[in-house]
Amino acid sequence: MAEYDNDMVRMGIIHYKSGEFRAAQNYFERALMVADDHETRFQANLHLSRVVEDPAQKRRYLEEALALEPANALARREMAILDGKIKQEDIVNPDALPAQSTETRNVQADRFTCPKCGARMVFDGDGHSLVCEYCTRNQVLGNQAVEEEQDFIVAMATGKGHRKPVAMQTFHCQGCGADFILPPTAKSTNCAYCASVHVIQGDARELVEPDAIVPMGFNQREAIRYLVAWVEKHQIKPQGKVQPPRGMYLPVWTFDIAGNIPWTGVVYKDKQYVQASGVHPIFFNDISIPATPRLAELLQPLLTKFDLPNAPLYDPRYLAGWPAEVYERAMSDASLDARQQAVQRVKQQIHAQKSQLSDLSYSASSISILSFKLVFVPVWITEYTFENRQYTVLINGTDGSVHGGMPERGVLGWLGNLFGE
Question: Could you state, in order of their start, the residue ranges of all structural domains in the chain?
């Protein structure tokens, strides 16, 4: 930025902060007339969008600013305000979030019963239908549209990206009339008296319902076979009987991340070393971060196996008969891990593509999160004991891939317990 151009922008900002919008506009317009550098033009367009009143002019200046810096959070937030995606009164200070309610509240519970015999229906492990546990009647779920991701800037500005559920819930069983108090992390439950399967429906924003869900792909018998194959491969002999795997859904945050990474280096050309520079564009689709800490280490290696980009819209019927855990990590916290993953990938890409350069340096400061969504993924979980230590095993509920803790040594001989043989 030239010194004169810098002075024009600086004087414009001083007048803008003093409420002298007309004088500020003159300085910013003069800066645009003479400046040819990226930073001056961006700052001038961004501040011009703030001092003009006409919405069409605001949009034009913001579009110019975003054309220069597509990932700039301030410009994207102000465009979201102009588009009506964010209301000024909804913008929060992340360092002073309002206290969450901890009071008990009533919620509605959906009960899934067979239209033929009245028995309870649960979601089948085939990934496509509800099935009656008594007469085996099937109710096929229709094809679900793929869920669109949510704007990251809008979520961070309004505070929904910073919160996690804390309020307790109550529900009334439509089968026997009993009432229950449930922990805030419960998304589905069986009535303790009549065993009716319910999906808990409260305030979706309070509970932060998932945007999408990957349906369970197979039943417990198949999960056992995947587990047996894994144990045979690793030659493990647990102590005592191993409980069959239990199916459930776990929450995962996914993020789309993009940016233009400037780099510089030295290349040997024509018998001399010369400076080289450029920009490395990146786009990472659905970087995935477990939204619950308890099984994060085991779940992370399985996430690449799920078809997250094509996960269908969340439908509560998928949870009938299956426990599901609500996220415990706020989206804002998970986004930091996603960005860190992106930085590591950028390092690998640049070093791989610019291996002919020496003294390579680059900046990851322009990496930006574009969008996000919360997805439920299906897993089967079990534990086994070996040498008085318990190990947890997770099975991907779509392709059967297995990841779990393993002892350093083991011997086969326990597989019949799983089948009752």
Answer: 3-90, 105-143+165-207, 220-419
